[in-house]
C-alpha cells in the first residue's frame, strides 16, 4: 500500500500506478525499482525516450543487442510485411523460406566450416542447445563417455540449467540446487594487477588456457565433451581475452579432441568490429552461439552455428529418423527471420562492422580519459565495448556503480549498465564521434557525482 501511495503521486506515462505491482522484473531489485521506475516509452536510432519525452542516449544498445540502433525503418517494414504474409510456421517437419535463407546467410558470414544453423529464441536457449548438440555428437560418434562440460569462472551463458552450470557467477548458481553434474571450470582471465587500463587485448594471461591440460590430466580427455567460453566475457564485467589465449585454448582442444564452443551472444554481429569474434582472433570454434544483435534485438531469436563435421555426423542414420531430438515451437520464427534478414542488410549496406572497427580507437581513447577520476579502479575497452570498475562503498558491493546507472538515467539522459562494481557501455554501432564524446562526458559527470 505504501508503494502504491508513493507511486500515485507520480506520472508513470501510460502505466496506472497499481500496475507497477504485477510485473516481476528479471535481474532487477524490484522494490527499489518500483519506488522510482526508470520508464521507457519510445526509441529511435541512438535514443530512448521517457514517457514525458526526455531523450536518453542509449549507451548499451538496449541490452547489448540493438547494434543497428532503434526502430530502423527497413527492419520495422520487414517485420510488418512478414506478419501480414506468414505470421507463424512450425519448424518441426515444415519449412519456410526465411529460415533457410537466413541460415545460409549466417553460414556464409561464419568462419571455417560453420555451415549449419540451428535456431532458437534466446542466448540461454542457444547455449543449452550447443551443449546438448555436443553431448549428442559424442553419442552418435560412439564416444558416449565424453559427457563432461568445461566452462569458465566469471562466464555468463544465460540462465538455463546448462548455462548456469557452465557459467561462473556465484549468484546465478547458488540458489538453484545441484545444477548439471560433471562440469568443471577454467580460471577467469582477469587480473587488475597485470591488466589495469589496457586498451584491447591484455598482454598478460594466455597461460591461463593451460589449465585445460590440468583438467584433462584429472579426468582424461575421453570423458570431456566440450569447452565453452565467451571470446570476451561481457556480462561479468567485460574481460577481453589475453593475447594468444583463445588460440591456445583451440590448440589444447585439438590435441585432445575436445569440442570448442564460442558463446558469441554478445560478441557477434559487429560488437568487436567483425561478424564474429572468432574472425577477429583467427580461431574457428566447432560451434558459435548467437542471439541479441542477429536482428538488432527486435524479435526474440538465438541460434547455434554448427560445423559440417558435427552436422554430418548426425546425418548418417536411416533417412526417415529424426536426427536430433531437440527444438522449440518458435525455432526460426518467421518474424524473427525477416527481422534478421533486414538487419543483416543494414549491417552490410552501412558497413556497421567496419564502422565499429574504425571507431574502436576513438572510443577507447575517449573512455580512457576518465582514468584518474575518483574511485575509478580500472577501465577496459575492446571493439565498441567499454567497462569502468568503480570502488564500491564498504557496506554494499556494487552500490556506487548502481547509483551511477540510476543517476545517469534520471538526471543526465544516459543509459548505461552495471554488473557488480562495473559500469559497462556498449552503444549501438551507429554511434557518431560526437555522441561518443557526449557519452563519455556524461559518464565523467556521473562518476564525479557519486564520488
Ligand atoms: N550468453 C551470453 C554470452 C550472454 O551475454 C547472454 C546474455 O547477456 C546470454 C548467453 C543469454 O542470453 P539471453 O538473455 O537472450 O537468454
Automatic annotation (TrEMBL):
The name this protein goes by in its record: Beta-alanine--pyruvate aminotransferase
GO molecular function: transaminase activity
Similarity comment: family membership: Belongs to the class-III pyridoxal-phosphate-dependent aminotransferase family.
Coiled-coil region(s): none
Lineage top rank: taxon: Bacteria
Classification via InterPro entries: Aminotrans_3 (IPR005814), Aminotrans_3_PPA_site (IPR049704), PyrdxlP-dep_Trfase (IPR015424), PyrdxlP-dep_Trfase_major (IPR015421), PyrdxlP-dep_Trfase_small (IPR015422)
Gene3D superfamilies: Aspartate Aminotransferase, domain 1 (3.90.1150.10), Type I PLP-dependent aspartate aminotransferase-like (Major domain) (3.40.640.10)
PROSITE patterns in UniProt: AA_TRANSFER_CLASS_3
Cofactor list: pyridoxal 5'-phosphate
Species this chain originates from: Methylobacterium isbiliense
Gene designation: bauA
Keywords from the named record: Aminotransferase, Pyridoxal phosphate, Transferase
Amino acid at each position: 500500500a505504501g508503494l502504491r501511495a508513493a507511486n500515485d503521486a507520480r506520472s508513470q506515462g501510460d502505466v496506472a500506478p497499481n500496475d507497477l505491482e504485477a510485473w516481476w522484473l528479471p535481474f532487477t531489485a524490484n522494490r527499489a525499482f518500483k519506488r522510482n521506475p526508470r520508464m521507457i516509452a519510445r526509441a529511435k536510432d541512438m535514443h530512448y525516450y521517457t514517457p514525458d519525452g526526455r531523450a536518453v542516449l542509449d549507451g548499451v544498445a538496449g541490452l547489448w543487442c540493438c547494434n543497428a540502433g532503434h526502430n530502423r525503418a527497413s527492419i520495422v517494414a520487414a517485420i510488418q510485411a512478414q506478419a501480414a504474409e506468414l505470421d507463424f510456421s512450425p519448424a518441426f517437419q515444415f519449412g519456410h523460406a526465411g529460415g533457410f535463407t537466413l541460415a545460409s546467410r549466417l553460414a556464409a558470414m561464419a568462419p571455417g566450416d560453420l555451415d549449419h544453423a540451428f535456431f532458437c529464441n534466446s542466448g540461454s536457449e542457444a547455449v543449452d542447445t550447443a551443449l546438448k548438440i555436443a553431448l549428442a555428437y559424442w553419442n552418435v560418434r560412439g564416444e558416449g563417455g565424453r559427457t563432461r562440460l568445461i566452462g569458465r569462472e566469471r562466464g555468463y551463458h544465460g540462465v538455463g540449467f546448462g548455462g548456469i552450470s557452465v557459467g561462473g557467477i556465484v549468484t546465478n548458481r547458488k540458489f538453484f540446487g545441484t545444477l548439471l553434474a560433471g562440469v568443471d571450470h577454467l580460471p577467469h582471465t582477469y587480473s587488475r594487477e597485470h591488466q589495469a587500463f589496457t586498451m584491447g587485448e591484455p598482454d598478460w594471461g594466455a597461460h591461463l588456457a593451460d589449465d585445460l591440460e590440468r583438467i584433462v590430466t584429472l579426468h582424461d580427455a575421453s570423458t570431456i565433451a566440450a569447452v565453452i567460453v565467451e571470446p570476451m566475457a561481457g556480462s561479468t564485467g567485460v574481460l577481453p581475452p589475453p593475447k594468444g589465449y583463445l588460440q591456445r585454448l583451440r590448440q589444447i582442444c585439438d590435441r585432445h579432441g575436445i569440442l570448442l564452443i564460442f558463446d558469441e551472444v554478445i560478441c557477434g554481429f559487429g560488437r568487436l568490429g567483425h561478424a564474429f569474434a572468432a574472425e577477429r582472433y583467427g580461431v574457428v570454434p566447432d560451434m558459435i552461439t548467437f542471439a541479441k544483435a542477429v536482428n538488432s534485438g527486435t524479435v526474440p531469436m538465438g541460434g547455434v552455428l554448427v560445423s559440417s563435421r558435427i552436422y554430418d555426423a548426425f546425418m548418417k542414420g536411416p533417412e526417415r529418423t529424426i536426427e536430433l531430438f531437440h527444438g522449440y515451437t518458435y525455432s526460426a520464427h518467421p518474424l524473427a527471420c525477416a527481422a534478421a534478414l533486414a538487419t543483416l542488410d543494414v549491417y552490410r549496406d552501412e558497413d556497421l562492422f567496419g564502422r565499429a572497427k574504425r571507431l574502436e580507437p576513438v572510443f577507447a581513447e575517449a573512455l580512457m580519459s576518465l582514468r584518474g577520476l575518483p574511485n575509478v579502479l580500472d577501465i577496459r575497452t575492446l571493439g565498441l565495448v567499454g567497462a569502468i570498475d568503480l570502488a564500491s562503498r564498504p557496506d554494499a558491493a556494487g552500490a556506487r556503480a548502481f547509483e551511477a546507472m540510476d543517476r545517469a538515467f534520471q538526471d543526465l539522459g544516459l543509459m548505461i549498465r552495471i554488473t557488480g562494481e562495473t559500469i559497462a557501455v556498449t552503444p549501438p554501432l551507429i554511434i557518431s564521434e560526437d555522441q561518443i564524446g557526449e557519452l563519455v562526458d556524461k559518464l565523467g559527470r556521473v562518476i564525479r557525482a557519486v564520488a
